[in-house]
Amino acid sequence: MNLRPPSMSPHPGGSSLEVLEGQWQALHAAAEAVLALTGAGPETPTAQLRQFPAAVSALAGGRRRLVEEGLADLVAIMEPGLAALLSVHERGGAAVAPAQALWQEFVSARALLMAVAIDQPADHAE
Questions:
Q1: pTM, whole model, 2 decimals?
Q2: Which among 27, 71, 92, 120 is least surrounded, fewest beta carbons within 10 Å?
Q3: Which helix (H) or strand (E) is 41 found in, with range?
């Protein structure tokens, strides 16, 4: 397996939605690499996963800042985590257990972000 970590940095010059979409896609490319290191098959994207950038773009105020900061935190976890896993893997080390742990952290953090961005009750929208 020859995996390379994708860049998860936002691309300057795009609209807010384009930046979010690019970051979300890069984050999921990294997550798919982590998932591959666990030995599992690829994740099937859901409609909610595809809606996330647009949902975040539609948010305002504190809720939007919370989601954007959470997304930045998730990127900050995934970038070095994936780099470390790839280093272990390329040296022939056992990467399955730490990859599983990173995958679970990613899924949990992503679920929280999606709950804030998408699952909000209409009467509590900002």
A1: 0.81
A2: 92
A3: none
